[in-house]
Write a structure and sequence with these properties.
There is one protein chain. By secondary structure, the chain is an alpha+beta fold. The chain has 2 domains: 6-116, Ribosome hibernation promotion factor-like (Double Stranded RNA Binding Domain), CATH 3.30.160.100; 120-190, Nucleic acid-binding proteins (OB fold (Dihydrolipoamide Acetyltransferase, E2P), Beta Barrel), CATH 2.40.50. Helices cover 28% and strands 35% of the residues. It contains 3 helices and 10 strands; from the N terminus they run βαβββααββββββ. It has helices at 16-32, 76-82, 88-116; strands spanning 6-10, 38-44, 57-63, 70-74, 124-133, 138-142, 148-152, 156-158, 169-177, 180-190. Helix 1 runs parallel beside helix 3 (88-116).
Length: 192
């Protein structure tokens, strides 16, 4: 991870075994999906009853490039329905089990997105060069949604990167790179 793991305990006692378990489970998450940028885990004892049987809430927030943070918050009511006497160990285990499933699902979706199209014409979008930096070998395309999409000199398949100007129309394929969405297979439609 690029950002160190953050673990916080609110309204409950911090224990070494809980912190070690959380670190081990985050390592397992990284094994499932190696592109996690950062992780924050919060253990919060929001409520307490007379018997002391209300387990804490375990909230996991994972930063992943190209998508909104993946958040799992396992609420005490679900634990109380599942276990007769739920505790912190159950809360940690169940929250991380959900996070593991969601990460595996995200990984599978991303794998399907990059392998799905053998024919690019179905996945091509029309865009316009909004910024160009020939000395730095990259530029940005204005998408139909109005956002800027990064592209590299090597992504230009048809046309001359050095002749591109702001306003030139291009067709491109959007893919997910290491740092998020980017334009690939850029083909010049019209030059200004």
């Amino acid at each position: 991870m690029q950002i160190p793991l953050q673990i916080a305990f609110h309204r409950c006692e911090k224990t070494d075994w809980a912190e070690q378990e959380i670190r081990a489970r985050v390592d397992k998450l990284e094994g499932i999906y190696e592109r996690i940028i950062g992780a924050r885990v919060t253990v919060d004892q929001r409520a307490q009853n007379v018997e002391g049987t209300v387990p804490p809430v375990v909230r996991i927030e994972l930063s992943i490039p190209g998508v909104a943070p993946l958040v799992v918050a396992y609420e005490p009511e679900r634990l109380q329905q599942k276990y007769q006497t739920p505790d912190l160990a159950n809360a940690i285990n169940d929250a991380f089990a959900i996070a593991e499933r969601r990460l595996a699902q995200l990984k599978e979706e991303r794998r399907g997105r990059s392998k799905a199209a053998h024919h690019d014409s179905q996945n091509q979008f029309l865009g316009q060069v909004s910024q160009i930096y020939p000395d730095e070998d990259h530029g940005f395309l204005l998408t139909k949604e109005g956002s800027n999409l990064y592209f590299h000199r090597n992504s230009v398949l048809q046309g001359d990167f050095d002749k591109l100007q702001v306003g030139d129309e291009v067709r491109y394929v959007e893919e997910i790179g290491d740092t998020g969405p980017l334009a690939t297979k850029v083909r010049v439609v019209t030059l200004r």
